Amino acid sequence: MQAPEFITTEWFNADDTTKLADYRGKVVVVEAFQMLCPGCIQHGIPLAQKIQRMFPADQVAVLGLHCVFEHHAAMTPVSLNAFLQEFQVTFPIAVDAAGEGYVPQTMEAYQLRGTPSLLIIDQKGELQAHQLGQVSELQIGAEIATLIASDRSALGADASLEAASGCESGLCTV
Amino acid sequence: MQAPEFITTEWFNADDTTKLADYRGKVVVVEAFQMLCPGCIQHGIPLAQKIQRMFPADQVAVLGLHCVFEHHAAMTPVSLNAFLQEFQVTFPIAVDAAGEGYVPQTMEAYQLRGTPSLLIIDQKGELQAHQLGQVSELQIGAEIATLIASDRSALGADASLEAASGCESGLCTV
Amino acid sequence: MQAPEFITTEWFNADDTTKLADYRGKVVVVEAFQMLCPGCIQHGIPLAQKIQRMFPADQVAVLGLHCVFEHHAAMTPVSLNAFLQEFQVTFPIAVDAAGEGYVPQTMEAYQLRGTPSLLIIDQKGELQAHQLGQVSELQIGAEIATLIASDRSALGADASLEAASGCESGLCTV
Amino acid sequence: MQAPEFITTEWFNADDTTKLADYRGKVVVVEAFQMLCPGCIQHGIPLAQKIQRMFPADQVAVLGLHCVFEHHAAMTPVSLNAFLQEFQVTFPIAVDAAGEGYVPQTMEAYQLRGTPSLLIIDQKGELQAHQLGQVSELQIGAEIATLIASDRSALGADASLEAASGCESGLCTV
């Protein structure tokens, strides 16, 4: 499935005109969260920060999607801004636009069942995975690397040989 | 560098005639450890067990290499056997053969600097990575998946498409 | 030093007319926190919840003091209310009254240097300890128990017999 | 119940003639363990080391009791010696003497059901608590401090009765 464009009211750590489509050509990892959701604070946000540090920025983009579906009056952009500062979140954060009910519009478009949810979108904009709750770092590392490698092999034989020769994606191989 | 064959006195969880070369065609992850090394117990062995659970056995083989370079009288095969039972280690364990000095022969052949060390050997038997100490699960997951994907792309376009089509290695992709 | 009375604008999980003095006769453990302070979420609040579960409510009272000294617009009572629900905080929370500068009035009266800070007040209302940052559970358990024991020995034999009558907390004693 | 004297074949980090009775006058915390028991390595030994660091040595003695009831050939004194060095255990360790069956003699005298077990013995040699498995640091800190405080109050006659009768803080004493 093609990943739906984000419907946002504003962005933090990026220009307000930013679009998901701007990241086409990279693997995009989206951390869908609410700032007062315990699992997001304990697992989701720290994992997204690790992914941001581990993979090179020209291959993998990490984005946050603040999709508030409860306690709307408590998780405002003013509060989110303080949260991002306190937890040292530096990747771009999209603020999901309110919908007609409790669930905001982008969250509904992706049919997310809760937070934290981790989405992985490939270089062509296809949604490749989404997972609710705590996820395995081994698995996420494998999924991201598989997409990077697939994209390289699509470039043809030379890139494929290069990929086979070893040290990719900034990882410390022999 | 081609990964040197293991020089062993016996194996646990496998036949004593087992060879590293028997696993050619798979990515081989080797946890080099000593049973009384704190970092091995706290990080190395649990990581190897997670890798064993995460990746399909027909693509990734997890092996242990018990390479004792200190307290030789304490870390005998009898003690190792009890350790493996208590810590529920079920992957094959090679017992590295004593050398002329403190360091056993396989450990010397691989020039390992200590334990725990994690080795990653590709499907053709090339040593692709070795890391001493605590390692990132994101990174290890990515390294293993990169080797799996490289091997597929070497098979030609069809395999490449298959790789691109999504859900592999038991991971929960869309 | 006698623990200063709290200067509050409201309380959660307690009547708004609640006073610190209402808890005289018990050991009072005060978790001074801000809802968006990472150390408070990771260590301070969980420790206070453990103390609440471990010690009998007729001997030890656990209170929160929400003392906002930064990001005032982000950490409002509306946001705090959602935070307390999401993190399942059930002990009484006093909202510290704003002062003339950034630091609220109770925080200034206690001369706290930051959050999380843990205060221990004895049964007579004397401030016995305050500690900034992550604290040892062994040490906090010992400090609370020392105050309980000191109070009992001051009461004489009758109280002592009462105290001796039971194994209370479902713990596995001989 | 009066804590039975240890029946030992040797001690590490102490003279082989050491007796439990030598520690009379102090609170004695005994970590009963097996060197290849996962819960002992993960929780029991680290907790005993924290207690050793937290409480003053003239008031609290921390001892280990190596009570092997399985894999006897694997957990010999030679192996134990290496274990203690690798895990930097510096408190005295008694090696429990083999019994007629699998269970060693001191373990049987205390009727321990497994490892890790934590024993707390008061200044007069009375066994005040024993707990199997992972234990709460708050609770253990409280139990030790309660015994220290009781002993202090024993300087007066009424309080002395109280101290002998045991359990004060609602924590897990007899």
From TrEMBL, chains A, B, C, D:
Tree of life domain: Bacteria
Domain Thioredoxin: 1-149
Gene3D superfamilies membership: Glutaredoxin
SUPFAM superfamilies noted in UniProt: Thioredoxin-like
PROSITE patterns: THIOREDOXIN_2 (PS51352)
Signal peptide boundaries: none
GO molecular function annotations of the record: antioxidant activity; oxidoreductase activity
InterPro entries noted in UniProt: AhpC/TSA, Thioredoxin-like_sf, Thioredoxin_domain, Thioredoxin_ResA/DsbE_sf
Protein name per the record: TlpA family protein disulfide reductase
Species of the source: Parasedimentitalea marina
Origin organism lineage: Bacteria, Pseudomonadati, Pseudomonadota, Alphaproteobacteria, Rhodobacterales
